[in-house]
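Quick note —
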Amino acid sequence: MNVQLLKTFITAAKHENFHKTAEELFLTQPAITKHIRRLEEEMKIELFERKGKSIALTEAGHYLLPIAKKMAAQYDKGLAEFELWKQGYNRKLVIAAAPQIASSVLPAILRNFMDGNSDIEVLINVINSYKIGEEISSGRAEVGLTRIEPTISGVACQVIHEDPVILVGPAEEKEQLFNEEGMLKKYRLITHNHPAYWDSLLNNIRSVYPMVRTMQVNQMEISKKFIEKGLGVSYLPYTLVEEEIKQKKLREIQSDKIMLPTSFTYLLTKVETKEAVSFITFLKKQLIKHI
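Predicted structure written out below.
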């Protein structure tokens, strides 16, 4: 049986309209009608009732629909496995990672892992920390790396890294002004670029420096660029700014009055495949070396 006919049938059943089906599949409406007629001829039974411009599944169509979905999914899975084989892979690992993690410690760790596991295709989905728990729960990813502890049930969660938060400012600032109080008076404080600690930290800062001026920037990478250009200062996890400090693009500012928080990296799993276990074991060893 032609799998394209089954996919047309599944899409038509979803929309109950040939025109919308044609739009989704980028085909002409006559082509959709032809697909359905060919499938009905092969099955020797009508699958849709025609009602003007609308269509509705017949009893046979309702019975066939879940079977067709399974057949199409199995076909797609087999095709994906064949593509892996062609590229020299025989295993796959999907990792959902928060942007802050994907742009800091993850690249070097991934490079070393992939060098030692060339038969594993690694797919990285960069997703907001709040959504990573859903990715793991639904099975769309096997490993999740996030900055916040998930509230979703059925997902295993463990802290795999604790990162000190530091105050950073522009590297070119004059030395005599390079202290927490002076920098917070001179520059705007860039806030809410981390999903976990900013509300409590900002309350703490305002209790000590009530006149502090703030600017919300919800991306850490953008925050770093803003700081480099002299637009502000911010409290950021050390690993996120480590390279910039080494390259003298940013400078650490000693905090003497503010109790600084800790940024946690959480590892999320649901079903630990062999590929996931291999990566998690490697990840923990690499983080210990990094610390």
